[in-house]
Design brief:
449 residues, mainly beta, five-stranded antiparallel beta sheet, 37 strands
Length: 449
């Protein structure tokens, strides 16, 4: 963390006044602005190599053989002189007693940085600047569409916009699966400067853009400008905001989905990365991967402006500005290089991967303390949770493995091989299969028992 930021080294109870850059809109009668629903812009970046001062420790892991354990079904038949009764009882084997097994692989013209499942059975793979595309699949792994990242920014309402290409990094779906937001590492076209790179300092890099994809048409229908090298993003469960971690501007963008615009930026520190949001949309946790801390953002303290309806065409107008003058809290010194974070189903526990230590940690949010940690493979990057909250699936970038960790005991109960450079992971909410994206150019689908 930059010492000039004056960050306190206490635990979660200590807060800092957020350095927040709000966006005021002036207009009708000095404070009224006609907004409509404007398309805006967005772009993103990815870590292809480990951060210089966040280096994973190398270990040797012996992998257990993989077997598949099927659910057990017992059938009992009782016969009398007049009737036959058949009773079938199905016993579901707990995830702790099952083993992951690969059931399919998906290749093609891809180099997937991430893969994200939607509630309506689609899987979005973001292929960075290496393929300049988003590829979309169904549950069986069949390709539904390839979406080029080339856009005419002016056609989306960007003043002075040009035709440019993006570099899709990560994606996040709305709660109903109607839209998917995609971050772009950088934009490539007239007027855009050089690509910053992952070792960037917070110094004058171009802003990038988010794309919004309509899943009914699988076309980009909105662009939203955010910070420099946006990476991870998350939609609040109430679909009100999209939060975006800007790797090279060291801050967090808050986007209001109603108006398709960035309403604030919050300084986080060196290389913000992972984001997790509580089920009631009140609080977000944001990792500082270039350090050792996790920021706590009180989303419920955002004050939304008043909205007026202007006749005769019922145009919406925003009166005033969004209020984002709040304090952010910190969970301090959790370990080197916190990257991916997920919350337990009851929001009482936060799990984080430590890219710089090769571990996954468990944080009690009532105290802000790390209560357990487990060694996985080298450079644990992305992480997903099973639908019941019992298991964490973690991809280890350097080890070329995936770890299965029990949340109750923080025990790694399985580690199995993946393809080269596993970097993204998601769980299918409909059948609990696990998808892994590998930079080497393949998606893999695993079944957990």
């Amino acid at each position: 963390m930059d010492p000039d930021r004056g960050v306190d080294q206490g635990k979660q109870g200590v807060t800092d006044r957020a350095r927040v850059h709000g966006f005021a809109y002036a207009g009708l009668l000095g404070s009224l602005v006609l907004v409509g629903v404007l398309g805006m812009m967005f772009k993103a970046t990815a870590e292809n190599v480990a951060i210089a001062d966040v280096v994973a420790t190398t270990t040797t892991t012996t992998l257990a053989p993989t077997t598949t354990v099927a659910p057990t079904t017992t059938t009992t038949t009782t016969t009398t002189s007049t009737t036959t009764t058949t009773t079938t009882t199905t016993t579901t084997i707990p995830l702790a007693d099952r083993e992951l097994a690969r059931i399919d692989s998906v290749a093609g013209n891809i180099s997937p940085k991430s893969v994200v499942a939607t509630p309506n059975g689609m899987f979005f793979a973001q292929n960075m600047m290496y393929r300049h595309s988003i590829t979309v699949y169904n549950q069986e792994g069949s390709l539904l569409a390839t979406i080029p990242d080339r856009v005419d920014l002016a056609s989306y309402g960007v003043e002075g916009g040009v035709v440019a290409r993006g570099a899709p990094v990560e994606a996040a779906s709305t709660s109903d699966g109607a839209y998917v937001y995609v971050s772009n590492y950088a934009m490539y076209g007239p007027g855009f400067g050089p690509e910053p790179g992952d070792g960037c300092a917070d110094s004058g890099w171009d802003n990038s853009f988010l794309y919004r994809v309509d899943t009914a048409t699988l076309e980009i229908d909105q662009v939203i400008e955010v910070g420099a090298v946006p990476k991870f993003l998350a939609v609040t469960p109430d679909d009100q905001y999209v939060l975006v971690s800007n790797w090279c501007s060291y801050d967090l963008s808050i986007v209001d989905t109603t108006y398709g615009r960035e309403i604030a930026r919050i300084d986080i520190g060196r290389h913000p990365r992972g984001i997790a949001i509580t089920q009631d949309s009140s609080t977000a946790y944001v990792t500082e991967m270039g350090g050792t801390d996790i920021a706590v953002i009180p989303l419920d303290e955002i004050v939304r402006p008043e909205v007026a309806i202007i006749p005769p065409n019922s145009v919406e107008a925003v009166i005033g500005e969004w209020g984002v003058d709040f304090e952010i809290g910190w969970i301090r010194d959790v370990g080197r290089g916190p990257r991916s974070v997920v919350l337990s189903p009851d929001d009482s526990t936060l799990y984080a991967t430590l890219n710089g230590e090769g571990r996954v940690i468990k944080i009690d949010l009532a105290t802000g303390e790390v209560v357990e940690r487990v060694r996985t493979g080298d450079a644990p990057r992305s992480m997903a949770m099973s639908t019941d909250g019992e298991v964490l699936y973690v991809v280890n970038y350097v080890s070329d493995t995936m770890s299965k960790v029990l949340t109750s005991t923080m025990e790694e109960i399985q580690e199995l091989r993946t393809a080269d450079k596993p970097i993204g992971i998601t769980v299918d909410p409909n059948n609990a299969n696990v998808w892994v994206s590998n930079y080497s150019g393949v998606l893999q689908i695993f079944e957990d028992g």
